């Protein structure tokens, strides 16, 4: 059985050809030809069955055969805001795994104790798109560039707001129990700090802005593990079977 | 505040010096000297507060000040048996993350469609020990060498036995719901297949041996992600707060 070929084509219903990188892959790597069947993902909830109509060096044109609207497999909107780790590969694997498991939005935070202040969003976008194709996600997660912790917590947000930190002197509720008790349609925004944690001031700022102080249990987790575990826990509560 | 220094010392209560690699790290990297405070982990449930009594090139001797027996943070025994991925780095990050999150035992399986038949257990052991120190786990997870799928399923086992696979023609229950319904003291053994999945024959063999056919939900997960997600789900059900 031949594995179906998926391509990410924003606005696939209106477009008539694959974006440049996808066209190169289709034509030069997969050697697709006119008449071959492909599947398009628009990243906004629909797949499309299509046929290649023209395959040239940098162009791959298609005709849509059938729209295949998808059902979202979890309830509510899940947003992780996290301070990037010093080692970029840790953020790269995290975002790949988060995409497979399922989430909606990620923002990178510039915090007091951040060890990394810059990151290549284009590289992360590519990893998200590859993982989205591999795991057949109908919605593309949104990847935001880095922003200051202050700006992030000052923005108005709906739903359950949580900040995970390690200060034992500030009471922390259990994140999983909190989201299990909330309405499962409710959005989740989770803040995860850098290797050196948020500063005490940052935690207090977040609490003033309506975030709840939480822990992820008794485990001492690295930043990227905490990010991924909070996404798996969100899925455990919000998934649709 | 100085971060406590942890060292893995099997049989720490009876031993009087750090193993060679740990001694090198203590003396050459951390520059510890006689009188410095260290913490030992025996990997069998106890930490020990100790003082360095002698620090030489390849030797670091200690006196134990106090035994600090730990409480296990989850119920039951969690065993993952998984076919290693072609790319070894995927198994390496998985085992690091599994150690942080918490599990008891891992076995690598040689399956019909395995793309890798050999792996360096010594390298994986080192990753487990580093992650165990970093995340302060009192019990060292056991890492078994590769064994054949047949031999594994033929062994007698206690507790809940599960095989995750992608054959839609074989009814699959939801893994998370199954372990939520079981007694939370019950042991878990979970089988995860290679990139090309278990063969249909392997799934049938496991079912005959008492394994339950399960899925991890609607997500299409890579092998290493399925392994880690099954461990996080086990922790969600079995953790002690």
UniProtKB/TrEMBL annotation, chains A, B:
Catalytic activity: uridine(1498) in 16S rRNA + S-adenosyl-L-methionine = N(3)-methyluridine(1498) in 16S rRNA + S-adenosyl-L-homocysteine + H(+)
GO CC field: cytoplasm
Compartments (UniProt record): Cytoplasm
Main location: cytoplasm
Bilayer-crossing regions: none
GO biological process: rRNA base methylation
Keywords: Cytoplasm, Methyltransferase, rRNA processing, S-adenosyl-L-methionine, Transferase
Enzyme Commission designation: 2.1.1.193
InterPro entries associated with the record: Alpha/beta_knot_MTases, PUA-like_sf, RsmE, RsmE_MTase_dom, RsmE_PUA-like, tRNA_m1G_MTases_N
Family: Belongs to the RNA methyltransferase RsmE family.
Function: Specifically methylates the N3 position of the uracil ring of uridine 1498 (m3U1498) in 16S rRNA. Acts on the fully assembled 30S ribosomal subunit.
UniProt protein name: Ribosomal RNA small subunit methyltransferase E
Organism of this sequence: Hoylesella buccalis ATCC 35310
Lineage: Bacteria, Pseudomonadati, Bacteroidota, Bacteroidia, Bacteroidales
